[in-house]
Amino acid sequence: MATEAKQTAPSDYDEKVGSPGLHDVDTSRGVRKTGSDSLSDLDTYLEGSEGVTVRDLETYRHVADTLPYTAWLVAFVEFAERWTYYGTTNLYSNYIRAGLPKGSRDGSVVFDRENGVAGALGQGQQKAFAIRTFNSFFVYVTPWVGAILADTRWGRYKTIMVFSLVCLAGHIILVGSATPQSLENINGAVGLLVLSIIVMGLGAGAIKSNVSPLIAEQYTGKLRKEILPSGETVIKSPALTYQSIYLYFYAAINLGSAGSISASFLARDHGYWTAFLVPTCIFCAVPFILAVGKKHYVVTPPRGSILLETVRVIRMAMKPAWSLNPRKTHRAIKANDFWDVARPSHYPAGDVPAHITWDDEFVGEVARTCNACAVFLFFPIFWLCYSQIDGNLATVAASMKLNGTPNDLIQNLNPISIVIMVPLMDKLVYPFLRKRGINFSPIKRIFTGFIVAGIAMLYAGVLQHFIFKESPCHDNQPSECLTAAELPNPANINVWIVSGPYILVGLAEIFASITSLEYAFTKAPKRMKSVVMAFSQFQTALSSALNFAFTELNKEEKFTWLFGVFGIAAWIAGGLFLFTFWELDKREAQLNAIGTGEREGFAGEDAAMTVDPSSLVKKQ
């Protein structure tokens, strides 16, 4: 369903009922309404389906197909990789910010474990923020490396295998940075930490851009009818199957993240080198699992270097559209003929410019890629909100009554809530909405994610306000407030109250982040899937870069303002997102139908903008 359909000439069907407009498409079920009861009209086959007619689409219930076991195998790889990633990065806030606890050589808490906080490097809140933000930036820039190598030279499987070994080397360096001997030289330990972040970031990022497309590629089914054991005839829908794949893929990510819960206790009770060693050992399973499943994966081979030609196509299309008047430029880009100048068919035979080395099909792929990527441009604001749960909210928790709970343990409520909510969404909420005819399309889901993320930030801002009131140190770094005996002196608020933002952000991720993965795969041409996925993930890197602009607000005494600003920004971005892509949302069913035909490319009108759904059906 992620590929493009071959354009066909108008059929007799088109002449009878005309080309369907946007009102003819029921996107809540992915069904095209014909507007006619003619037998010949209703009994036309959908191109690329296994004998599914328009009548079938209008008659039978749509359900997701069975997921292949190789998809679960890829999900297990991601589960193990994410366990090791979050099992280390979840500890960075305390590890960098706080110094060695009293009497400790390895970061473990020796006295008052009830309210004590593990620490090691003692670099303070702002340096901890800077290093964590650099880590987030780098690990979401490096997906470009993996995407380019996979799409042009190695393929996704080999790329994942090679960079899993790179990532393992980074984990080993990190363990070395946290040994008691290393922590005797704080500057050296900081240097090793930064080196490990660079090496692990290169490995994890390259894996990240390829594992998401790889899991969806394991499903090769088509739109078809099937009779269930109950006797009911249903339509097995690839679009719904991809939605399920990414729901459970994201559940695997967060199950791995939740699996790192032990890291907080290991750091507090046994020191950081032990806490970092456990995920390193777990990561050793990743290349092993990849090797075991090698013969069974559905693998897409590399398709040659296309990035340079992509840039040339965009530059050629932009040249006549560019104007000093922004409104004129915008109108030219939105015009149906925007891409025509880059198409060989636009020129008379024999007069095609020499620098055009591509065909019309490739221009259609570039057009579709650009439209898919445009949806992700609002996500830096969403990831600004998300970034608070793996850093600043841990500092918020450190200023509250812990009662034996490590302050960086609470953040595991985020992945736990996602693991619980994913099957509820897949089996109950989404089917209920479809049954009621409610079109909760990807664009609407992403918009909802922005709104929920904003609510989470405002919750955090209000909570921080009450912490300032209750802490003996008020707004003077309440997370480091000490008694006269130099023991923790927290605000009299139970730490579990900070659960709200973590759970709300988890719900926001289900609506926005999971849907963005689904959207990146289903709307991208085959030979550009890793690149589009890398662009999607690159928004997190842009968010980290943007986060640096808020360095002055990333001080504990200004957290109330920080959370409030991010919450309001998420609401504004969500509103602009829905307004911008409202028309695209109406064409969701048409876009999902692209590529169900004989070939992957679309060499006519802009494949992502002006698809005539009548070209997607053929006579019996």
From TrEMBL:
Region (Disordered): 1-36
Principal localisation: membrane
Residue spans of biased composition, Basic and acidic residues class: 13-29
An annotated Gene Ontology molecular function: transmembrane transporter activity
Top-level taxon of the source organism: Eukaryota
Compartment(s) of residence: Membrane
The UniProt record lists the keyword Coiled coil: no
CC per GO annotation: membrane
Biased composition (Polar residues): 1-10
Membrane topology: Multi-pass membrane protein
UniProt keyword annotations, A-Z: Membrane, Transmembrane, Transmembrane helix
Entry's family note: Belongs to the major facilitator superfamily. Proton-dependent oligopeptide transporter (POT/PTR) (TC 2.A.17) family.
Protein name: Peptide transporter PTR2B
Organism: Pterulicium gracile
